[in-house]
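Just wondering, does anyone understand these tokens?
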Amino acid sequence: MRFLTILALLNRGAGTRLRGKVVVYTVGGTVLLVLLAGLVVLDAERGSGGDIQNVGDAVWWAFVTITTVGYGDYFPVTLTGRVVAVGLMIGGIALIGVVTATLASWIVERVSDDTQRKTHATEAQVEELRDEIRELKAMIQELRPAL
């Protein structure tokens, strides 16, 4: 029983560390993706007559696109810019999926921990009741000859 408790604690710690790494990698990857997409779109759109003509506009467009807000104030007009936009939109959907999965994992772990604590307490109570039943049976056996 203690082995299972130790194993559960180690597993919980590993899950927390893994979730932390996923968050760090996701945030870092997202920042890099926004900056890279902004620069690629800026390179493709500059001089094409489109709205995206400077780094600020390009990064703003990339940020708005990856968050799936899509204001429409800036948009690519070249084929390269539109291909990058599609990739960034897919990246935004994936980002929402990772955030949702991480949050769901955390909630499930919390509920599982609470359930394990309650189960452990219940098992201890059952064992106490079994001991008490054994004692009562022994008392009955001792009193039976007197009846």
User: Anything to note?
Assistant: The radius of gyration is 30 Å. The chain is about 80% helix and 0% strand. The chain has a mean pLDDT of 83. Residues 18-146 form a domain with the Helix Hairpins fold (CATH 1.10.287.70).
